[in-house]
Amino acid sequence: QVQLVQSGGGLVQAGGSLRLSCAASGRTFSSYAMGWFRQAPGKEREFVAAINWSSGNTLYADSVKGRFTISRDNAKNTVYLQMNSLKPEDTAVYYCNAESSMRVVVNAGGSWGQGTQVTVSS
User: HSE on the CB side for 14, CA within 13 Å?
Assistant: First the structure.
């Protein structure tokens, strides 16, 4: 199994930036895609972005396209979410996930990180 440990997050003003990290350990070679989801209070968990580990191909939700960037560091087995031009609507708990395909990751399957709070103030 894959263990995912998240870091980053915090409080930022609207228009600012944050960078989230998700480090994978364990059976990392069996995971070929990783993604980010978020969940605001009272709302369903929402897809944000995903990346194919080997090819680097990415997929973004329309709500974050052009503002967020997902990337990976193969040597560190870590995926990042660079969040720019943050809006109060981005406030949520952010989770990373990992599985063997983009399809599974995008559909909220696989292993999950512990979550980290992102709060954007106006």
Answer: 5
> How far is Cα 6 from Cα 35, in angstroms, rounded to an integer?
12
> Residue 2 pLDDT more than 90?
no
- CA-atom Rg of the chain in angstroms: 13
Q: Which of 104, 103, 102, 65 is nearest to 84 (CA)?
A: 65
Q: Which helix (H) or strand (E) holds 104?
A: helix 102-106
Residue 30 has pLDDT above 60, yes or no: no
β-pair type (111-112, 33-39): unpaired
| DSSP letter, residue 32 | -
Backbone angles phi, psi at 120, to 5 degrees: -115, 120
Beta strand segments in the chain, E: 2-7, 10-13, 18-26, 33-39, 46-52, 58-60, 68-73, 78-83, 92-99, 111-112, 116-121
Q: What angle do CA 57, 95, 9 make, to 5 degrees?
A: 100
